[in-house]
Give the backbone structure.
Amino acid sequence: MAQYKLVKCTINGKQTETMVDVRASLTDMLRNDYRLTSVKKGCEVGECGACNVIIDGECFNSCIYLAVWADGKNIRTLESLLGPEGELADIQQAFIDEAAVQCGFCTPGFVMTAVQLLETGKEFTREELRKQLSGNLCRCTGYENILNAVEKTMLRRLGKL
């Protein structure tokens, strides 16, 4: 018999609470209970990055993060990046401008990984960015345009472009 626990957390700035099966992943909770479909179900073993979300400022694979662990946490998904009028964040627009999107399945995970990097305010070398993004898999783009989008957004935010 399944056991359930009440999980209270903040999701994209909104206080939430829901009963979850103690065996459920955060991916399942976000998709099934909150309809946050930017959180993709890819490998479900923490290898592809399609389910990446930011939890208390740090990027995690939500497929291997139990929903019960989210209790008391602040969780951000791609949906949190939209502006008040539905405008895209600078990193999202950079993905479009640099043609870093093809099928789009991996894009939310890449964007959330980039958000964590960009919010540090640090300047990373291209090789450092490549390494930081290496936990995300893409079968379409070849990665260079994704790297270009993240690098250009970083340089713009730092006032160097």
The first helix runs from residue 26 to 33.
